[in-house]
Amino acid sequence: MTRHHPDSLSLMEYSAGNLSEPHALCIRLHLDQCSHCRSRVDTLDSLGAVVMEQQPKVSLSESMFDSILAKIDSAPNDQPAMPPAPRIGVLQKLLGKDLSSLPWKRQLGDVSVLDITERFPGQKDQVVLQKLAAGGKAPAHTHRGDETTIVLQGAFADQKGVFNQWDFVVLTDHDEHKPVAVGCEDCITLSVLSAPVRLTGTFTRMLNPFIR
Amino acid sequence: MTTLDQKPASSEGRKDPWSQLLQKVGKNQDREAYHALFQHFGPQIKYYAMANGLASHAEELVQEVFVSIWRRSCLYDWRKAAASTWIFTIARNQRIDMLRKMQRTSAEMPVETEDLWQIPGENENEPVTSLHRLMSERRIRESLSHLPEEQTTVIAKVYMENKSHQMVADELNIPLGTVKSRVRLALNKLKVILQDQNV
């Protein structure tokens, strides 16, 4: 179980570029707000550079350099091909609107969900937004398989602690909890469910992490 | 080989030679500096492509990476990342991008690779921490050479062959827990695990 920050092993998989898009998104959202973890990723990126430098080299033809020059000459440099990260957040890009105006589906009691798996075509993880109404409680539940969650808005608490905006949580099947939305805002989370074996029906899987 | 091909050996937290060259590319579109970077990093990137299963696209990846280096070099700030780190992350992102594009159309990708994997130093809120970064790269280079082979093997597979910890375990026929503990031991020595917070 990982709470509040991603562990170093996950950050390494992120730095190496080995995570699925939804898992990378959870890490990225956390990194945007956590300079501590950003500096760990910087170190890991440097590790990648040093590892790459120590591998065997494969020779290249000089003609390849000429074709690279031809390429950069054919596309003028003054139109920035890669504008520096426009400040439209990745979430907004993904959802097309902000969190308050999403087509939530009311589930049990205080819990609403929105499955956004289809925004990530070609991969196996299930990606779900969940909303626990301010002050609301979710029934006690356990987890099956790994579930990575990042808090996007508000906060929730369970017997292990309080999870604030941008906190990162990984729960496994050993973890049982009974989350409560704390504070005066609805608590909204983004969860990625690794899909090892589908042990429960779609309906119940939809309810993570608040309910399973 | 020119003298530019010596290994960066900055000792005072100063700019290493590659970072100086990259900065020249960014500031002056210096093609000689660009060529020197190509000679040094091109072969590394080609190996990277071949190691992670893109053998038939290896040269294409090298080209994509270098075009990207040229276009975004104006954003490069040596105080925020060493050139080698910056170039590694571009290679990583171009690899991810290439794989994504092979699998689907761009209409199916609302989120771009860069939205998920950032190039170091392009977060405008980041304070300048040059000394820390340059030292950390030097420290990594030194520490890595002292790690037992079983640890460096696992790390190389994760970074170069882009295998998950689980895939490395399967390939080496050892338990996942063993892979993880080798990585943890290595990251400990590399001081990445300063304070893993499992509060």
Description:
The complex is a heterodimer of chains A (212) and B (199). With 212 residues, chain A is of the alpha+beta class. Chain A has a single domain, classed as Jelly Rolls. Chain A has 6 helices and 12 strands. In chain A, strands 1-9-6-12-4-3-2 form a 7-stranded antiparallel beta sheet, covered by helices on one side. In chain A, strands 8-7-11 form a 3-stranded antiparallel beta sheet, with no helix packed on it. Chain B has a domain of 113 residues: RNA polymerase sigma factor, region 2, helix turn helix motif (Rna Polymerase Sigma Factor, Chain: A, Orthogonal Bundle). Chain B is globular. Chain B has 9 helices and no strands. At the A-B interface, strand 1, helix 1, helix 2, helix 3 and helix 4 of A face helix 2, helix 3, helix 4, helix 5 and helix 6 of B.
Largest sheet of chain B: none
CATH class of the domain at 13-125 in chain B: Mainly Alpha
Question: Percent range for helical residues of chain B?
Answer: 55-70%
**Helix/strand/pairing category of chain B:** mainly alpha
Shape of chain B: globular
The overall average pLDDT of chain A, rounded, is: 83
What is the element string of chain B, with H for helices and E for strands?
HHHHHHHHH
- Cα-atom radius of gyration of chain B: 18 Å
Mean pLDDT of chain B: 84
- Tell me the number of structural domains of chain A: 1
The helicity of chain A comes to 25-40%
- CATH architecture field of chain A: Sandwich
Order of adjacent strands in the largest pleated sheet of chain A: 1-9-6-12-4-3-2
Strand segment tally of chain B: 0
Poorly predicted regions of chain B are 1-13, 195-199
Helix and strand composition category of chain A: alpha+beta
Indicate the CATH architecture of the domain at 13-125 in chain B.
Orthogonal Bundle
According to CATH, what is the topology of the domain at 13-125 in chain B? Answer: Rna Polymerase Sigma Factor, Chain: A
Number of DSSP-assigned strands of chain A: 12
- Classified in CATH, the superfamily of the domain at 13-125 in chain B is RNA polymerase sigma factor, region 2, helix turn helix motif
